[in-house]
Design a protein that fits this description.
Layout lengths: L7 H10 L12 E2 L2 H11 L5 E6 L5 H7 L4 E5 L6 H7 L6 E4 L8 H8 L4 E7 L5 H10 L4 E9 H8 L9 H9 E9 L4 E2 L6 E8 L10 H11 L7 H7 L9 H10 L13 H13 L2
Parallel strand pairs: 2-3, 2-5, 3-4, 5-6
Antiparallel strand pairs: 1-8, 6-9, 7-9
Helix pairs in contact: 6-8, 9-12
Length: 291
């Protein structure tokens, strides 16, 4: 068993050895807490039949633990200065493939469907916080054949992903994530678990992919227009936010919107953040029928 990378002493040793310079533009924070690492690995429920896609492996702290449990690990790292470090720290693991690419430019469908057609695929990562939402939504919206996504994100983002109607954190991201998955909070992670310390707390959240979207709507693109509109102006009534939402294909009179709300048994003073995903779907279908 190789020495664990995810410890304060080993991480600092590697950083000194390679004179590594942190790149703020990549939002690099390396995990140095084995307790948190073990929670991630346990939640991921890995086996030798799994292929794991990791985004932003850094110096290989999480990658090492993944390789010891999974059959195959594909680590996608954008920072080219980390590639030789990863090749050294992960030497001896023949089930790791390192890709020096931007995850937002990787053809995930080609990767999963053509290169890994027979594998059970899971995403496990300490995500770069500055692109957390684009990565998550890119994975969900493409309906890739994933079992689940287990990721470290900013705590406030995790709170938004799992938020319920009527709470301050509930918004468009909550609806989008819960449309495709079941979010589950694995652990809260304080700032002292990283080098360098981030300015905000973190959390590990798992998104268990649903076989079918949580609700069925007449038009998915239109539904997400309604969702974005519903939360665009949180202090305004739903009638006003929908009316003010400026999309060419999304123009309704206030009378039309009030009529749809009444058909749903809702008061015209209702606000978007109080509506469940099911109610938003119902509203979307009613509006779509008069579009």
């Amino acid at each position: 068993m190789k020495e664990k990378i995810a410890s304060p002493a080993r991480t600092r040793e590697i950083l000194r050895q390679y004179d590594f310079i942190f790149q703020k533009k990549y939002g690099q924070n390396f995990l140095i807490d084995l307790h948190v690492l073990n929670k991630i690995i346990k939640a991921a429920e890995l086996s030798s039949s799994d292929c794991v896609i990791e985004v932003g492996p850094g110096i290989g702290s999480l990658t090492q633990a993944l390789a010891e449990k999974a059959g195959q690990v594909i680590a996608v790292e954008i920072d080219k200065q980390l590639i030789p470090i990863l090749q050294e720290t992960l030497r001896g693991y023949d089930n790791i493939h390192i890709m020096n690419q931007d995850i937002l430019k990787v053809d995930m469908e080609e990767l999963l469907v053509k290169r890994l057609p027979s594998s059970k695929v899971k995403v496990v990562a300490n995500l770069p916080y500055y692109i957390t939402t684009p990565i998550i939504m890119g994975l969900l919206e493409k309906r890739l054949p994933l079992e689940h996504i287990t990721v470290m994100v900013q705590k406030e983002v995790a709170d938004r992903m799992k938020a319920v109607p009527g709470t301050k954190d509930y918004g468009a991201l909550s609806v989008a994530v819960q449309y495709y998955s079941e979010p589950y909070l694995v652990a809260n992670v304080p700032v002292n678990c990283f080098i360098p310390r981030p300015k905000v707390g973190s959390a590990v959240i798992q998104l268990r992919i649903l076989k079918e979207p949580r609700i069925h709507v007449k038009d998915e693109v239109f539904f997400f227009h309604v969702v974005r509109a519903a939360f665009a102006q949180r202090r305004k009534t739903l009638v006003n936010t929908l009316y003010n939402y400026s999309q060419q294909e999304f123009v309704f009179s206030k009378e039309d919107i009030v009529s749809c709300l009444k058909e749903m048994g809702l008061n015209e003073k209702v606000r978007g953040e109080t509506l469940s995903i099911e109610k938003l779907g119902q509203l979307s279908d009613l509006l779509y029928s008069i579009k």
